[in-house]
Sequence to fold (275 residues):
Amino acid sequence: MIHKAKKSLGQNFLKSKGVLLAMCKAGDLFKSDVVLEIGPGKGVLTEYLLRSVNKVIAIEKDHNLCEILFEKFQKEITSGHLVLIKGDILEFDPSVYDLKSGEYKVVANIPYNITGAIFKKFLTEDTQPSTMVLLVQKEVAERIVARDGKESILSVSVKAYGTPKYITKVSKKFFSPAPKVDSAIVQITSISKKNFASPLAPLRGTREGKIQEKWFFQIVKAGFAHKRKVLIRNLDAVVEKKKIKEFFEKNNINEKVRAEDISIKEWLALAKELE
Fold:
């Protein structure tokens, strides 16, 4: 069956063996691992994943591609080596497939038009993966790791849950059809909610000494609200200026610093201190 890529679903099929191997290597895969693949397409990455682990769960939204995949991997599906699901990844519930927090990995060439939604879903999910290896737009990968030394809401949000690493650039020529921009493999390891208090804990002053997720992101969003303003002026909208100044003085932070210059460690300390 011939399949023409659908622009509406952000389909750009990967065709480089070297990139496929790099993605599997970045996943640090073991036979005992369970891997979730988002948008397997024609199954080129799926083949490599099946060679590396005992179980792959692949979720594909496109009906025609599902038919191709069912035919291509009939043996693996019958044996349970591959679980193929026709559906929308943003509606996927890991617990329905007996996936437990920290006990599965996500490795995928994702549709770039839902990149942000995928990060939000799996990093904030109650059932988080332990590792994510995603092929994303190069510019997005660079922002996630703050390659230029400047943080963003995206980089701080990702680092609050795990450790991101820029693996390698992937040229647009390695895709069919070729996208307009280059891509990159980004790896996120040690994914957890260790920095955050239980949702059942009170909004302020938790006994665990941890931060409420809601409060942390309220602080971060306020800090980045106006890029040209210094951080202290942005935070003034949600916290008393005197408290912010005291924190800056205590931690030797210049009062003229901007949100992009604050590290994840400082953001966590700031949110905890001001909560």
In short: Residues 1-11 have pLDDT under 50 and may be disordered.
